[in-house]
Amino acid sequence: MADMVQNRRILQQFVPPRRWQNTDCGGRTLWGSLLSMKTSNAIQAIFERFFNGGLPALLILFARLLQNANGFILTAIVAYRYGLDAVGTLTLATIPITLFALFGTFGLHFRLAQINVNNGVRNTIGLVSAAASLPVIVIIALMFGMVFGHNPAEQLQLSAIALSAPYFAQCNVMNALQVLQGKEAQSIIAPALNSLGLVAGAFSNDFSNFCLVVLAFRMLGIAIPYMLLPHDFSAFGQAFGHLRSGLRYLFSDAVLVASDTMILLLSAHILGRSDLGVLGICRQLLTASDTPGWANLQSVYPKIVTGDDAYFRGLIRSMLRLGALLAIVVTAVAVPMGIYVFKVGDLWFFAAILMSSVPARYVVVCIETHLKARGAVSYANWLTAARAIVGFVVVGVATVSGGLLGHIVALACFFISLAVVEYALTLHNKQPGSVALGAGEAL
Prior knowledge:
This protein is mainly α. It has two domains: 51-245, no CATH class; 271-431, no CATH class. It has 18 helices and two strands. Strands 1-2 form a two-stranded parallel sheet. It is globular. It starts with a helix and ends in a 5-residue tail after the last strand.
C-alpha cells in the first residue's frame, strides 16, 4: 500500500490529477491516455510504412487527387452541357497543354531543392518561370486555335483552353516550393480554385464562356499561391540562369512523352475503337494508381537530395508496399466500374494484369528521381532514353502480334523487368552524394 501511495505521488508530480483520475466530467484516465497514445503511434507507424513523407505526403496526395478528379469532372460537364463536339475540342486542346505542362516547368521541380539559397530567392525563381513562359504560351495558344479551329468560336475555345497550360506547369513548381518551406497545405489552393472554376463555368450555356471562366480561375490558382510566398526580387538576375540549368532535367521526360505518344498512335492504328477505348480506361486507372507514388516522392524530394543510401533503400521498400496496396485497391475498384459504369465486364481482368506492374513502376520512378536528385542527370537521361526505345519496341511488337491483351501483358512485364534492371544498375553504379548548389554555381 505504501508503494502505491508513493507511486501515486510521483505521478502527481508529472501528470495533473484530472489526466489520470476517473471523473464524471469526461476526463480521461492515465491508462486511457496511454492507450490512445499507443493507438495513435501505431496508426502513424502503419502510415509511415507506406508514406515516407507523413502528413506532408498526404496533403500533396490530396491536392493531386483533387486535380485528377477535376479532369474527370471537366469531361463530364463538357459532355453533359455542351455535347460531344465540345469534348472533341477539349481533347484537341490537350496537345499543347501536355507539351507546355512539361517544358513550362523549366525542370525547377527537380532543381529547386538542389539550390543552396534562401526561400525568397527560390520563390522568385519560380515566379520568373511563370512570367517568362506566359508570352510563349500566348503565341502558341493563339496560333494553335487559328490553325485547328473550324470556326471563330472554336478558335477562341481552343486558344482559351490552351492558355491554361501554365497552370499545370506551375502546379508542379509551386508544389516543390511548398514542400521545401513546409507549406504543403497551400498545395490545395490551386486545384480547389480549378474546381470552383469548373462549377462557375458550368452555369454558362455557351462553351466559349465556360472556357474563359475556367481559364480565369486557373490563372488565380497560379497567382494566389505565389502571393502567399515570400520573395526576394534582388535575385531576379539569377533566375534565368537557373531556368537554363533546369532544362536539362526535362530530357528524360520529353523522351518518355514522345515514346508514349508513338505507342498510342501505333495502338490507334492497330486496335479497333472499342479495344482502344478499353486501353484508354486502363491507362486512366494506371494514372490513378501512379498518383500516390508521385505525391509521396514529391513530398520527400528534399530528403532524397540530402539522404544517404540507407534512406534510399528504405524509400524503395515503402514505395513497394504503397504500390502493392494501390494495385489491390484499383483492381478492386475496376470490377464495379467495368460492370456498371463502362459496361466492360472483363475490365477487371485487363486492370489486374496492368496493376501487377504498379509496384515495379513505383520502383522505376523512385530510382530515376533519386538519380536526378543526386546530380546524376546524364545517367538518368541515358536510362530513360534506353527505356523509351526498348519500351516502344516491346509494347509495339506485342500490340501488333497480340492486340489489346498483348499490349497490356507486354506493358506490365516490361515495367517489372525494367525495375529489376534499373535497381541492379543503380546498385553497381554509385552516384555522387548530395549536390546542393550555391546561388551562382552550375548556371
